[in-house]
Amino acid sequence: MTIQKRVEKVLEKIRPYIQSDGGDISLVSVDEAAGIVKVTLHGACGTCPSSQATLKNGVERMIRQEIPEIKEVVAV
């Protein structure tokens, strides 16, 4: 399974939690060589002051836990 598919599977696990707060997340790209995942936050998560904390402490932590090749998750 490709790293992109693995990232998509992790995002599917995370998505219900983000949606329960009125937001959503979508995958933009995966740079396998650099280990960087780019995502877009939508809805309430796009304007929430805590969105950066959610991204780093929630999304990035879960992705890195399941896919050690990933070094960082950034919002674009």
Summarize the structure.
This protein is α+β, with helices and mostly antiparallel strands and 76 residues long. The protein contains 3 helices and 3 strands. The protein has helices at 3-20, 44-47, 51-66; strands spanning 23-31, 36-43, 72-75.
Structural write-up:
The radius of gyration is 11 Å and the shape is globular. β1 and β2 form a beta hairpin. It starts with a helix and ends with a strand. By secondary structure, the protein is α+β, with helices and mostly antiparallel strands. The longest helix is centred in the first third of the chain and has 18 residues. The mean pLDDT is 91. It contains three helices and three strands, in the order αββααβ. Helices cover 50% and strands 28% of the residues. The protein has a three-stranded mixed beta sheet. It has a single domain, classed as 2-Layer Sandwich (GMP Synthetase, Chain A, domain 3), CATH 3.30.300.
SSE blueprint:
Elements: H1 3-20, E1 23-31, E2 36-43, H2 44-47, H3 51-66, E3 72-75
Parallel strand pairs: 2-3
Antiparallel strand pairs: 1-2
Total helical segments: 3
Overall pLDDT metric: 91
CATH superfamily: Fe-S cluster assembly (FSCA)
Structural class: alpha+beta
Radius of gyration, rounded?
A: 11 Å
Annotation, overall tally of beta strands = 3
CATH architecture: 2-Layer Sandwich
Remind me, CATH topology? GMP Synthetase, Chain A, domain 3
Residue share in helices? 40-55%
Across the major sheet, the strand order is: 1-2-3
* Cα distance spanning the termini: 25 Å
CATH class: Alpha Beta
The structural domain count equals 1
Largest β sheet strand count, sense and barrel closure: 3 strands, mixed
Low confidence ranges: none
Q: What shape does the CA trace take?
A: globular
Strand content: 25-35%
SSE string, helix = H, strand = E? HEEHHE
